[in-house]
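Researcher: Can you fold this with S-adenosylmethionine in place?
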Amino acid sequence: MTILSQTTMSVMPPAALDEKPMPKSQDHWDQVYSTKSDTEVSWHQPHPERSIGLIRSATPNLETSIIDVGGGTSHLVDELLSVGYFDLTVLDVSQAALDRSKARLGRLGKNVSWIAADITMWTPPRSWDVWHDRAVFHFFTETKDQDAYISVLRIGTKHGSVAIIATFALDGPERCSGLPVQRYSSTTLAARIGSEFELVADGLETHRTPWGSTQNFAYVVLKRR
Ligand SMILES: C[S@@+](CC[C@H](N)C(=O)[O-])C[C@H]1O[C@@H](n2cnc3c(N)ncnc32)[C@H](O)[C@@H]1O
């Protein structure tokens, strides 16, 4: 969060007072993505194989609409494009992350919808067939933020939509990127998302960080009733 000194506040133009407060996590994540390369962040995957496999088995139809929530600089969007999916949206609180992904994809990135927003404060303008979130929901350690995320998830999905959500497992790390996380089993994660979604598949993955340590993730595939 930006802390303004008295001096700064006294010279702030009146229009700025009307601006919405900056999402509290934006500064943190912009700083991360402006200073660290892909191989300097623990969550980086050169090939997000588990996510691709779960998306393809949930929805082989290439017309499926997919949103990657908190996509960061993930290569999931590259791989979805190369498989042939074309209705793709990547949302992240960090504009710096989205800019890096757009630059990496070049011309191909022009076919993707890029949204810079805090998921807990966002109103989806449409719904998607697949909602994908790897290592984002677990940052919401307060009930009110979890509830806000789940409300947005409900607006952004419809009957039959699939939500693929991965968090640190119960034996995963207690922090990520210096921030505390809420860890889940597939059962507790599905229960937290709520009975509007049916648990159709789950699994564990041991992720190897770019420097060779391991982190256990719990994955759930949930179908909107
Ligand atoms: C651990 S990284 C995971 C990135 C990506 N999902 C992956 O698997 O490579 C967490 C991501 O969530 C994003 N994020 C954190 N809080 C967010 C929020 N409130 N709204 C949207 N994105 C958020 C961060 O900017 C970051 O890109």
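Model: Folded with S-adenosylmethionine in place. The two ends are 38 Å apart (CA to CA).
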